[in-house]
Amino acid sequence: MVKNHQFTIGWICPLPLDREAVRLVLDEEYPQDEVQYQNAFYLGGRIGKHQVVIGVQRKIGLSQAAILAEKMRASFPNIGYFLLVGIASGVPRYGPAGAVSEIVLGDVVVSSPRGYHGRVLQYDKGAWEGQGLLRAAVNNFRADGSFKTNITEVLKQMRLKLDKERQHQYDDPGPSRDRLFKDTYEHRGTELDECRACCDADCVDLRSDRGGGATRLVDKPSIHFGNIASSNQMQISAVERNRVQKEHNVICFEMEAAGVMDEYPCVIVRGICDYADSHKNKGWQNYAAATAAAYAKGLLAMIPAIDATSIEEQSSTQHAATITNMTFGNNRDGIQTQNFHGNVQFGFERR
Ligand SMILES: [Zn+2]
């Protein structure tokens, strides 16, 4: 039985479907009734050399993420830092003219410095303030090398754990279901419609219409590093999305990170399941949750094990300081490092 003080990584899942994906990347899952504190139960397991405790938010939103992180930190005192892993909305493209990167559904966005020294920005408070500079844990992930791991292989291993009925739950939906609508074309159907029947196909850009930068082989998402916009409001307008992107240099929209970033060393990993417009649907959610979890697993493999006993009496600042010289990506301007076609580049050296 793993004791509460032995967990060193806190993994926050905003949604139950994010939790289903992380279960599949655990190398070992502990009996659920053994991972608890004051009758609050968590998912616990081992990923490589790390003891990981996983919490799911009761509701979506910034404050819920903050509450969960606080509870987890109180219950598992040696959590050195958090990973917040789940699905989110992405901008379709970013970067300066001539060096534009395309984000397609299923790609992964990782919070890292991009213009603002790595802020997660909370933008629904009327003013953009740097809500939670990424702390030492993330800043220390600055690139000074590169390392590749294979997200494709992790996805394959995840599927092997599924029973027959769920076998295709985490399949790559493929390019034909990746529809990027023109900015001004609003969704015509209900929330559940996947646009195929309700929305005008002439108003869609498929990946093939978006140039080579939008091409992906099956199970080979690209990884993007950049600022994340965090808000309590769901982003459902392409026009508003473009405005916020332009004004604040963000590549991803979500509803949790700012709540956690304020208080704890935290890395945000988001699988992109829609384009933050009115055509949101659930078609990509499982796969995006899987690519995010697969990336995060690779990330943990790069991080030295945290010694739970030695950090027992240190402050949280010092926890962060024990994670040194690690970086996301190898491009300090925060532009997508490149299309890796499945080989995720972490940008720091294995110890
Ligand atoms: Zn639509």
UniProtKB/TrEMBL annotation:
Organism, scientific name: Melanomma pulvis-pyrius CBS 109.77
GO biological process: nucleoside metabolic process
SUPFAM superfamilies: Purine and uridine phosphorylases
Molecular functions per Gene Ontology: catalytic activity
Protein name: Purine and uridine phosphorylase
